Amino acid sequence: MKLGFYSKLAINNIRKNSRFFFPRICTEAGLIACFYIMLTLSMDGRMQSVKGGNYLSAFMWMGVAILALLSAVLMLYINRFLMKQRKREFGVYNVLGMEKRHVGRVLFFENLISSLLSVIAGLLAGMLLYKLCSLLICRLLQTGAVAGFYYVTPLTLIPTVAFFLALDFLIFLLNRISVAIMKPVELLQSNSAGEKEPKIKWVMLISGLVCLGTGYYLTITTESPLNALALFFVAVLLIIAGTYFLFVAGSIFVLKTLRKNKNFYYRPKNMPAVGGLLYRMKQNAVGLASISILATGVLVMISTTMSLYSGYESVLKKNYPQHLYLEAGFSGDNEEIEFLSPSDLEKIVRNAAEKNGAEIKDVEYHEYLLLAYYNSDNILYTQPEMNEADVMEVSSDIGNYFFMTEKTYSDLTGETLGLSQNEIVVCSIYNPEGLKDVTGTLTIHGREYRIKNNIYHFPISASYLASMFSCYGVVVSDENTLNEIYVSQKKVLGQFASDYTRRIAVTFADAGKAEAAGDAIENDIRASLNKLSDGRVLHYNLDSCWNAKEALLGMFGTLFFLGMLLGTVCLFATALIIYYKQISEGYEDRARFQIMEKVGMSREEVKKTIGRQVLLVFFLPLAVAGIHMAAVFPILTRMMKILMFFSVKLFVICTLITFAAFALIYVLIYIGTSRTYYQIVK
Amino acid sequence: MEILKVNDLKKTYTSRMGGSQVQALKGVSFTVERGEYVAIMGESGSGKTTLLNILAALDKPTSGSVELDGKPLASVRESTMAAFRRENLGFVFQEFNLLDTFTLKDNILLPLVLGGKSVSEMMSRLEPVAASLGIESILEKYPYEVSGGQKQRAAAARAIITNPKLILADEPTGALDSQSSADLLRVFSKMNRDGQTILMVTHSTDAASNAGRVLFIRDGVVFHQLYRGENTNESFYKRISDTLTMLRTGRDSE
Q1: What does the pLDDT look like over A355-413, one tens digit per residue?
Q2: Fewest CB atoms within 10 Å of the CB: A159, A512, B172, B228?
Q3: Which of A4-13, A289-298, A646-655 has the lowest mean pLDDT?
């Protein structure tokens, strides 16, 4: 009977405060749905068996972890607003003779009901949307859809429900404690506490400028992709700190400066806005900074994953200039590997291709020694030598060096170089900081070589290793010299030493056709190799662009999906924070505007002033997010080079699309929430 | 010369469902001469607030008219109403109604800012007003930093800074202690001596005894009025008090 009373009161409260509860329930339901979908995707065996689906599990787990954190922060944030608005109500209960434990009971039922509604709605939405999401992923991975509609397992249902019920219970406990320590009089008055005028915090202002400036400097000027990777997080932290500091101290500084300018300040348009904002900023600077950062996060997440995904083909092309690579050799007991000759390799591939109806357009033979060195003043060091020589890593250029003999070079290009004993020719194939000629001498393993000249084409299509390091081709005079380098590095590096590469690179006439027959071709090649092995141990390396494509699509597609899902969650989180902000401010502003109306402001003017303030508060974070995005853009392009993504144009387009879509949704939310705000203020 | 002419004012409120009707004003008529200091007294529910809202053009009468300096309020268009009020009327409220986001100075200047006056004019007007109300030293303070009496003096400064034809005061001493009340009433008397017309709604006999004339409202009509004449505050207080008693006992015996 009594419990019935409390639950009835709770239901009534939720209905009466639907302005606060409805978005809360919707948000929680949305979070539950996303959580459920990601968790289920990480466990659904059908999805993982799909081509490229092997990344799902790891990425979705990561997503679940991020979402869990985000959910906790968001729900606590919403709850804080809700409680702030309702403290007066609890105060009235107290005054009317309800004890705190009774208020606690009402709170409990309110929480229980809202949380049950969220869980039911969230799980239903999650189960319904799951199929949609799995279809979307299959589409992104460019494979056929998985069979079956539902995938329901207690393995994902129970953790989802448990996590959110636990979160809600934690929130209930926090609220219960805050009611317990409040005095009824304070509860009644807490809405109208006097506010002091904010002071300019000079230290914070200056450190904000310094942080943001340094952050921007790092993001814009860091050229080398490897440094970019290392410095990105430093830059992000600096920018985040700078944003908070500047929102808190900078906004007040700007407003106070405006106020000092009497001819600007004492205008009907400006005075109410500046005064109102000065007051608002003190309470909202942190919130607005958070919104800006969340929004930037959304932009970065979606635009990068979208560009990577839509640019996967160029990434693939950079990694795999040809379609199929084969290297093979045999060894008996304790014998050196005897490599198959290029013509033998070609014969094997041609047979396999013919059998499967794929036409070969071109076959290249790659024979080279690929070694990594640090270059300090044209002296090359291997990693262990580097540590010994105690040369600063930063001042040196890490690079991959493709070595070949003049004979191989001539065979491949038909050109002769006329190198004498100690002469070499260098080709700068790739450099993240721009191609440069290498001149003078080059010292390799203690022997000094004279650089005869630079060439600008190297007969090996540099593979993906070229992405983060600079990359050079070196032609030496003869086999002995090459072997000397090979032996020297073997001595220094031991088991980490490199071996010669002797492979053929095959380009097919019709890539699509070859890809369709890809598995069959590879199987036939393996069969031929096994037949040739004749009891010896077979060593082979078979790689194809279609296998890489599957992996790339799987990784980028899954990342893109994750980016979109988390981006959407962040977007709505942003919107929601603004919505609650609008409402809580609406109630505070109402009294203020009523006074202005009494003092002689027309309704029209009041409306305009409100409009200006709301617009500014709403769109400031969007503008800041845009600026941040522009500032981190350079470092992002450099970081994406590590993944062999080079198309700045595509990235610009994706970023613009993301920003436009984001702004559009933001505007829609703005229209929706400002209507509520006007209703309150009126 | 009349500055305010109220003629047979009636106001009927209809409840939302259209059921019962409440007649707040049943035909109020009176005039206020330029330079007069008039107090309107009446108990809660007598129709005082309704009357004041109509005079302030915040509410419209069901019938009857209000003329301010010869101009009927009903003839002022909605779009210019805010400007009209700003230029012709000054308000002092029981709850001060100062904006907590502005200093006292900015609060006082607000009507001038809204009226689009130049900064130099604002400052030249502010000075004498602040001096006569004795608030020069606290102009840069915020409302929450000063006492109730100081707040109300700032509100009075805000009301007179536009040189309004009429100041409407709604229970100006209602939220003040007796010392601050006495201070504020002295300020009002001084403003009146300087030629300012004041119409004050109150149910404090003390406040009313400062006025030149007191109107008594009961059940939506002007029931009685008293002129101060040559009376001192003290003897006027006695007469008002007697009248109130008479009104009350008179009603009780009805």
Answers
A1: 888 888 888 887 888 888 888 788 888 877 766 655 555 545 778 888 998 888 887 77
A2: A512
A3: A4-13
Q: Cβ–Cβ of B158/A271 closer than 8 Å?
A: no
Q: What is the DSSP string of chain B?
A: -EEEEEEEEEEEEE-TTS--EEEEEEEEEEEEETT-EEEEE--TTSSHHHHHHHHTTSS--SEEEEEETTEEGGGS-HHHHHHHHHHHEEEE-TT----TTS-HHHHHHHHHHHTT--HHHHHHHHHHHHHHHT-GGGTTS-GGGS-HHHHHHHHHHHHHTT--SEEEEESTTTTS-HHHHHHHHHHHHHHHHTT--EEEEE--HHHHTTSSEEEEEETTEEEEEEE-TT--HHHHHHHHHHHHHHHHHHHHH-
For residue A466, pLDDT over 60 is answered with no
A-B contacts at Cβ under 8 angstroms? 70
How much is the pTM? 0.76
Torsion sign (Cα): A87, A89, A90, A95: positive
How many Å lie between the alpha carbon of A184 and the closest alpha carbon of chain B? 23
Nearest CA in chain B to A600: B86
B chain contacts of residue A602, beta-carbon cutoff 8 Å? 79, 81-83
- Residues B75-99 have a mean pLDDT of 86
Is A503:A366 a contact under the CB 8 Å cutoff? yes
Buried b (16+ CB within 10 A) or exposed e, A115-150: bebbbebbbebbbeebbebbebbbebbebeebeeee
Query: Is A455 touching B (CB cutoff 8 A)?
Result: no
The answer to whether B53 faces chain A, any CB pair under 8 Å, is no
Q: What was the pLDDT predicted at A167?
A: 95
pLDDT confidence of residue A514? 83
Average pLDDT, chain B: 87
Asked if B99's CB is within 8 angstroms of A595's CB, the reply is yes
Q: Which of B77, B97, B101 to mutate against chain A (most A CBs within 10 Å)?
A: B101
For B53, the closest chain A residue by CA position comes to A598
Contact B205, B43 (CB under 8 A): no
Torsion of CA A632, A633, A634, A636, to 10 degrees: 80
